[in-house]
Amino acid sequence: MTSLDVGPTDRLFLGYTAVALVTVILAPIDGWLGWVAFHLLTFVAVLLLARGAREGPVGWLHLWYPVLSFPWLYREAGALRHVVVPVDLDAIVRGWDAALFPAWYAIVPPRLPVAVLEGLHAVYFSYYLLLVLPGMVAGRSRRGMVREYVFVLTAVMLAHYVAAVLFPVAGPVALRPEVMPSGWLFVPLMDHLYGAFDRGGLAFPSTHAAAALIAGVYAARFFPRRRAAFAIWVLVILVSTVLCSYHYTVDTLAGVVTGAAGLWAGRALWQGRVSGG
Predict the structure, then answer these.
(1) pLDDT, tens digit, for every residue of 105-132?
(2) Which domains does the chain have, with CATH numbers?
(3) How far apart (Å, rounded) are the C-alpha atoms in residues 55 and 134?
(4) Bond before 205 cis per omega within 30 degrees
(5) What is the DSSP letter of 198?
(6) CA distance 47 to 50
(7) Of 67, 123, 192, 252, whose CB has the highest number of CB atoms within 10 Å?
């Protein structure tokens, strides 16, 4: 009989699921019953995966399920954003942004050619590839490091979802219809993805920036000879978050800071839990 393989990432994810389940039951949000079912099914699925094979498709799913769940957890965090604070706090963040930077997210996009904006949105979309492709390619040869990466990324993303509930900020997304053309492929693709999963409130600090930084650092560790390419990839993703009018500049910089802090804390926590059994 296969033993129950509940690792640090599983415990972290199950703990978040339990807290989210209680929150959804107590909080008056639309579709709460569906979220209850989602968390119950997720809880059972994780335990079943922990009893499955450690290699092959089941082992792969056991490793990557937290990352695959991010879009739905992101959506839920947005739905919960007014449970603690009844309004988005954009006025505060816009004040910080105006004190530090010009409003590039409102000024620059209308002046850029559609082809450039398409390219920026393609870069913004490539973030999703950065999160998974390097780790999946490195999975066989650097499996221990990939497990660490998934743990650190999961910890940081879940922490940002909690932060979004406590400090909701919508970001400049509402400006997009005024400043952004319809585009050809990646502009409408990102509009569709945000329409499907984004419920607002997760702009500050930017999860996009934090996760891109972590993914880029680990990708450079997986493939040291390509570290410059990954550094450039992360940099252009950070620029795209602002020029695509998804984040205030201060959102992205805050995401870099929280991503770096989460990377340090997550690695320390992983090493402590693994070495401590």
Answers:
(1) 667 777 889 999 999 999 999 999 999 9
(2) 86-275 (1.20.144)
(3) 19
(4) yes
(5) -
(6) 5
(7) 252
